[in-house]
Predict the structure.
Amino acid sequence: MRNVNFLGFKFDLRGNEIPNNPNVITLQMLQDLTNVRGELVAQLFKKKGGFFVGSSPECEMAIGTVTFYESLDGRLKQDKRRTTINGGIYDLVLFRNITVEGNRGDFIRSFFPIFLGNEGKPLPDNLPDSSDIPDVIVVPVDIKNDKPVAIVEALPNPAGDDEGKEWVKLQNTTDEEIDLTGWEMRDKEARPEPLSGTLQPNETKQFFISRSNSLSMQLGNKTGLISLYDRESKVVANVRYSRADSGQIIRFERTNSEE
């Protein structure tokens, strides 16, 4: 069995903001997809889902059981049941297993709520479409390293202990000062390293990776991805590297994925 590591929250996933509700957690998932060499080739984006909070297992089993029998009776519309619970409006999504003949079977494959809004208030625009729910979208990882800030060098594998000795060099490729407040770098597992300070016009500056905790950015020695995000969580630059020998400084070319 493989382990699942929780690496923190990502607040830049696609989706519409919805009202708060204390009875449910609404989430989206983004998974890194690597090849046999451990290189990041794409990201799998799963759309909005969720789970109840504070309810008893018996309550959730009862809700799922009722929804299951409604599904058997053909009362679900595209695997969804619109309902209201404690003043919250939900789509209860239930997928049954698929038999070898291609029909829906007699087992629950997946069951979860999608919170839509609070009773008595208008529902948000662009509600999740049932056709969106089970799908996973492959999001290509664009490799770009051009303007306004480029990643020029990195030391992923310092000689001796790595802690506090890994670094990345960034270059301001413009003729204007760039304030890095709110910017951050991330590794291939989306662990962040916050940035601060300024880059003067055409300045190149070295930034050390703090490894302040287990959820902070870390540069792998075998393969890696270094991403740079601005204060609006937009990707400014992405670079990949393969195996990094001890003490080896890796230099990156300036490229633009749109060219």
Remarks:
- Residues 156 and 219 are 5 Å apart (CA to CA).
- Confidence is low (pLDDT under 50) at residues 130-135.
